[in-house]
Amino acid sequence: MQIARKFASVPSKLQGGRTQELMDKRQAFVPRGVGNNTPIFVEKAEGALIYDVDGNVFIDFAGAIGTQNVGHCPPEVVKAVQAQLEKYIHPCFHVAMYEPYLELAEKLAQMTPGNFPKKTIFLNSGAEAVENAVKIARKFTGKSGIVSFSRGFHGRTLLGMSLTSKVRPYKFQMGPFAPATYKAQFPYPLNRPQGMSETDYALYCVGQFQDFLYTEVAPEELAAVIMEPIQGEGGFIVPPKEFVQGVYEICKRNGILFIADEIQTGFGRTGEMFASTHFGIEPDLMTMSKSIAAGLPISAVTGRSEIMDAPAPGEIGGTYGGSPLGCVAALAVIEKMERENLVERSRVIGETIRGFFTDLQKTVPHIAEVRGLGAMCAIEFVHPDTNVPDKANAAAIQKGCYEAGVILLSAGVHSNVIRFLTPLVITDEELAEGLDIIQHVIIEQYAEERK
């Protein structure tokens, strides 16, 4: 199979001279626990393309784990940050306030689901947003319990790990974990019992959650439920709409706050600005980060004003939270997304990816499912005779793809899912070439296995 290449180019060894030099330095000075999915060092990045220090060019289907929805180095964002650098870098909002913080808080109040007054605190990372959302929920309700879900991911801090479901690599030998955290079952539509309809399965899963409140923790002890509307690290699992709405309604009836973790799903990734819209819910609190600012470190908790006002002055915050550089970058990102209608572009990209792999699935039975919403798409690999998760081949496919010029990430509790997080500015030509390369690698991998 010949691939017409215009963008991806790997003429030199991945471990070329400059890469090897930097890799030696990395091994000497950076802990091995800091994982690296792709053994390259970036020289520059633009749009959906990454150029490494040895002259290789890669089509980026990872987007810095969903951080680059508007692409690498969008000129509008670069210009906004440069202009801000000439004014002031960081007076610290707790010491001397500044307008970009207010402008971004106002914008998020307008954008996020829910027609009610909202307020926002800005922080540094997704995990920090989760930590503060929990603090705010506990302060408002006077209760301590927090429910997350199987396969959920909410960060690598102590509380983030406690809420996260995947043991390796996130939690192994890292305990003890935070108390008053509980895990309920999240749907896995691929494993729906044979003969059970989608509607019945959704109702069954809601029933499981209701039973959870009888068998594990009483509603009166719960401050909040935190849910990724579509699970990210867990394998891009799209739950039934009726399940999300069912849990949401149970929370409402029992005085439990609903926190939507939109750190990976937010800012157009799913074909809506926020994934909560797909499910018709209005979260009490929402956490955001990743693509909010094109890669600058900033995160947010946005929620109902009366909830956000529960903590007293000084009880939430941090020295670098709401960096002026992050705020102006985020405002530029939002303006670009709205001007270029990147939410609609996300839908087109997703339809293309899912259609492509649905066709490939007909000849590659190892692809158990093609799934996703918008441009948040994934394919799950299993051994077709047993339906056992196929981690080894998924890893080999990921490796084969970056060696051929496409950067991918895996996901899922069993690491047998390949996920796609292309920048939403990827061109049709770049997308088509990347998909052709991935298809070639998949076909070659399973042909090799049959030998």
From TrEMBL:
Cofactor annotation: pyridoxal 5'-phosphate
Q: Which reaction does it catalyse?
A: (S)-3-amino-2-methylpropanoate + 2-oxoglutarate = 2-methyl-3-oxopropanoate + L-glutamate; 4-aminobutanoate + 2-oxoglutarate = succinate semialdehyde + L-glutamate
Q: Which pathway does the protein contribute to? A: Amino-acid degradation; 4-aminobutanoate degradation
Q: Which UniProt keywords apply?
A: Aminotransferase, Pyridoxal phosphate, Transferase
Looking up InterPro entries in the UniProt record yields:
4NH2But_aminotransferase_bac, Aminotrans_3, Aminotrans_3_PPA_site, Class-III_PLP-dep_AT, PyrdxlP-dep_Trfase, PyrdxlP-dep_Trfase_major, PyrdxlP-dep_Trfase_small
Q: Which Pfam families match?
A: Aminotran_3
* Family designation: Belongs to the class-III pyridoxal-phosphate-dependent aminotransferase family.
Q: What is this protein called?
A: (S)-3-amino-2-methylpropionate transaminase
- What is the organism of origin for this protein? Paenibacillus plantarum
